[in-house]
Amino acid sequence: MDWIDRQLVTLLQGDARLSLAELARRLKMAGPSVSERLKRLEESGAITGYVPQLDLARWGYTLTAIVRLRPLPGQLKALERQLVATPQITECDKVTGEDCYIARLVLKHIGQLDEILDGFAELASTSTAIVKASPVVRRLPPLDPQD
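and the corresponding structure tokens:
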């Protein structure tokens, strides 16, 4: 990937709904060239999709929690299946250390936390923190090849 691809991805990160014509204008390139680059980035898997960024509070999700999960003996695979099956979990990482998973979940009310965690009680021990603020939301890492 070259500097044009990095600029293209940076523009899309700012607004994934930019038209091909607008992307071409900002990159000072012909529309078909931008279209070809975009198609190549998508087909190679460098761009895996486009999703809207939501204001979760407007959808009724007023709380976010971070849950660390340590599987009980023999429950690792079952725990992973339960994590995948819980729709309120918006992100989950399998990590090293004492805990095996760190999950981010969104809640409409605090009562949901116990309802969700009860589904994990026979599979894992949990440790939960309520998110007060998110000074850094998910973002792209530096795309400069020197970084």
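(Above: one complete record from the training split.) The chain has a mean pLDDT of 94.
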